[in-house]
Design goal:
The chain is 23% helix and 32% strand. By secondary structure, it is an alpha+beta fold. The protein binds CU-O-CU linkage and copper (II) ion (CU). The site of copper (II) ion has 6 residues, from loops.
Length: 788
């Protein structure tokens, strides 16, 4: 009459208990593992979690065995809880090691690649899908995974066993034959279920490749350009509905701005995006500007409904900037990845006479190709996973100028292509399917000293390559521009970029690429060396161990000097794209940390550097024109948004006043003062009148701060301003200016200041405020009222 077997006191069948226990173990451990793999969980959630369910089911048989082991009938008294839990966890981990290794191998070998590669980011986001694993590393990966899983498996087993023990003193399992049946049957059922989970649901919809023609965005050439950011519909995929995007002037990429260097260009950007998108900021990548035209991450923003005019002087040390394939894109702190993914990017090409004299292919034979990847849902809408996904966001569809894998009809002649990688995270290695060499003539920063013939060209995010491809004698051929670095593996959708159909017989009017193109600019000897470690610190992407803080400055170079900057990637697994605003940089060496190698011929002068794990890139950077704060950051946009960004502040040269920005000529008497030694200017006065430009009502002040205009009295003066209400300071700011003349400053309230102002104005309608501005030895005070 003893039939306690197969039941647990309180009426559960032991099978149910085993399944619950095993399920908890499988899915709980998987969630932990994914969370450990930096935010993969967030991707899973964004992609509907199908891959998570499938992997959890795959783990279930392992955890079933472990659970059975823990609950096996014991002759003598049951072991202590701790020992039972430890035993279960170890059993689970031992089974997991080969399982995880097999799973990795499966990912490597997976022919259905895209379908298997879990949606936006997914394995690719781990940075591991980029390369295939060897056998040793696959096994090692399995063992590491098992070790990582162990603590969580232990905690989960402990919890589950403690709960079950409260039900029954002895956890007794079904008799052996029944147990074997339960195990076999459930394993089969679970495996079947796992196979049926439609993981492909996370991949973008299918479409025929090379079915839509390449599109060239509109070209704007005027001195005064208007860009309007708005939510618009773009036909990115050749089939199905259009995609909702955030664009400049209703196209993705935005219009091509094409301008001569040496003369200023004014670009007025209006933010008509939905208010929920927040403030925006537009950065002209590669340009030298004053700090207020640089598109800073958290300053000089364009509020919803507002406009801002950026001025690009187009000069470097008084001479025209070098012609270069530059671009513009949003740069808002913490959401740049999202904003660019949504479509806020476009080309800005500078031309100059030096380059034009070379008679390279021009007009319709000079084609910008802006390459970006995106992930789509079943309704053709963009999927941007959680901003928590700090490893970087991938998509499985490659777009060129906003068209998925287009074709382009070309003539049998030379073409100049400006290859841009405007992706958030993805690297490409461009090559031609017929093995034909590509002549690289330039980089991010314009023409190389000599052309370089290459068969593959790797570009990381924000890098550009200016190339010439000769289709002479290729009439009738279809040549594919391939990506030899496909994240989802060779043969996959992302291994193909676009197709050239050589179907026109034309005469070539361009000259062959000459053997000498353009000498590098001269730079002085470096006065200091600074090391920038691109790190991972406390689960964040950092530079020299610190996250971005708009109030911190990490270096203060002096205008007129050159510095040697060392970029080191001290993190494992992920490349970083180091981008420095303001001046271009000359490559000194590139190599493993501590083992510098001479610069490769195809990257001599640039502003965006691919720095592989364990690599060190050394550059010389001449600081020429503008005083102010500028950023340096990783151009993997999700790394940047996570905080891999910092600021340097250029200081005025003590010996010679630098060139004033030509676009905003100050009062008479500006320009190079000629002599050396700073002479004090008696006529320098702080302007009488301080003019408040923004609203003086509570709400806008809380939201946007107080903006005012003053005239700085002294060249290279530091201007300090503070705002107080009822005798207490609520905001202050310090600004170092290049030249005298008008200064526009925004005072942002501190958190304390906001609270104080809110408190004061909750009991009265108005409150007296004082704005105090100091420059040089002079101070001005302005009293006004802030109203509710
Ligand atoms: Cu293209 Cu600071 O960015
Ligand atoms: Cu990075």
């Amino acid at each position: 009459m003893h039939k306690p077997q197969g039941r647990i006191e309180g009426g559960w069948s032991a099978e149910a208990a085993i399944f619950l226990f095993a399920g908890l173990l499988a899915f709980g451990t998987l969630a932990w593992m994914e969370a450990l793999h930096v935010n993969v969980l967030a991707v899973e959630v964004a992609a509907g979690g199908s891959h998570f369910v499938r992997d959890g089911l795959l783990l279930l048989p392992l955890s079933l065995v472990a659970a059975l082991w823990a609950m096996r009938p014991r002759r003598r008294r049951a072991p202590g809880l701790l020992r039972a839990a430890a035993g279960t966890a170890i059993a689970f981990a031992v089974l997991l090691a080969p399982g995880a290794a097999a799973h990795t191998a499966l990912h490597d070998a997976d022919e259905a690649g895209v379908a298997h590669a879990d949606g936006p980011g997914g394995t690719a986001a781990l940075g591991m899908a980029q390369e295939s694993h060897g056998l040793a590393s696959t096994l090692l990966h399995g063992v590491t995974d098992a070790m990582l899983a162990l603590p969580m498996a232990f905690l989960l087993s402990l919890g589950a066993l403690a709960l079950l023990r409260r039900r029954s003193e002895r956890l007794v399992l079904p008799a052996a034959p029944r147990r074997r049946f339960v195990l076999t049957a459930s394993t089969l059922v679970v495996a079947g279920a796992a196979a049926m989970v439609p993981v492909s649901g996370a991949a973008s919809p299918d479409y025929p490749k090379f079915s839509a023609p390449l599109v060239i965005p509109a070209v704007l050439t005027g001195q005064n350009i208007n860009l309007t950011m708005a939510e618009t519909q773009e036909q990115l995929l050749p089939t199905g509905p259009p995609t909702t995007m955030w664009t400049y002037n209703g196209s993705f990429p935005g219009p091509i701005i094409r301008r001569p260097t040496g003369v200023p260009t004014n670009v007025t950007v209006t933010n008509n995006l939905p208010e929920s998108a927040g403030s925006m900021t537009t950065h002209h990548h590669g340009a030298q500007t004053t700090e207020d035209s640089d598109g800073q991450p958290s300053d000089y923003l364009i509020a919803p409904g507002a406009s801002k005019t950026y001025t690009y002087p187009g000069v470097d040390s008084g001479a025209p900037e070098r012609a270069a394939p530059q671009w513009y894109h949003d740069h808002r702190d913490m959401v740049t990845g999202r904003n660019v993914w949504m479509g806020l990017a476009g080309a800005f090409i500078y031309d100059d006479p030096v380059e034009q004299s070379l008679n390279l292919p021009k007009g319709e034979y000079d084609v910008p190709l802006m390459v970006a990847d995106r992930e789509f849902d079943a309704g053709n809408q963009l999927l941007y996973p959680s901003p928590l996904l700090s490893n970087g966001v991938f998509g499985d569809v490659i777009l060129v100028n906003g068209v998925a894998q287009p074709f382009h009809e070309v003539g049998d002649r030379r073409y100049r292509f400006r290859l841009y990688n405007i992706s958030n995270k993805r690297d490409y290695s461009f090559r031609l399917s017929n093995g034909q060499p590509i002549t690289q003539i330039g980089t991010d920063s314009g023409l190389l000293p000599e052309p370089v013939s290459r068969t593959t060209i790797r570009l990381g995010p924000a890098e550009r390559a200016d190339v010439v491809i000769d289709f002479a004698d290729r009439l009738g051929e279809n040549i594919v521009l391939e990506n030899a670095d496909a994240a989802f593996g060779p043969g996959e959708r992302d291994a193909v970029v676009m197709q050239f159909r050589v179907n026109q017989d034309v005469t070539d009017t361009s000259s062959p690429v000459p053997p000498a193109l353009r000498p590098l600019p001269a730079t002085g000897p470096p006065v200091t060396t600074r090391i920038w470690n691109f790190d991972r610190t406390n689960m964040k992407w950092t530079i020299n161990g610190a996250s971005f803080d708009p109030n911190r400055v990490d270096a203060r170079p002096t205008l007129g000097t050159t510095e040697r900057w060392v970029f080191r990637n001290t993190t494992g697994g992920q490349p970083h794209m180091v981008h420095v605003h303001l001046n271009d940089q000359k490559l000194v060496s590139r190599g493993p940390i501590g083992d510098p190698q001479p610069p490769p011929p195809h990257e001599r002068l640039k502003e965006t550097w691919h720095v592989a794990p364990g690599e060190e890139v050394v550059v010389d950077i001449p600081f020429s024109d503008y005083v102010g704060k500028f950023v340096i950051h990783c151009h993997v946009l999700e790394h940047e948004d996570d905080g891999m960004m910092t600021q340097f502040q250029t200081l005025p040269s003590p010996s010679a006043p630098p060139h004033p920005p030509p676009a905003t000529p100050g009062p008479a008497g500006g320009g190079p003062a000629g002599g050396t030694g700073s002479t004090s200017k008696p006529a320098d006065r702080l302007s009488r009148r301080i003019r408040i430009l923004s609203s003086t009502r509570l709400r806008p002040i809380l939201r946007r701060g107080l903006r005012f205009e003053a005239a700085a009295p002294v060249n290279r003066a530091t201007l300090r301003a503070s705002l107080s209400v009822k005798g207490r300071r609520v905001a202050s700011v310090r600004r170092t200016r290049l030249s005298r003349g008008r200064v526009r400053v925004t005072l942002k309230l501190s958190r304390r200041g906001k609270a104080r102002l809110r408190r004061l104005l909750s009991v009265r309608r108005r409150v007296g405020a004082q704005l105090k501005v100091t420059a040089g030895a002079e101070t001005r005070r302005l009293r006004f009222t802030i109203r509710r």
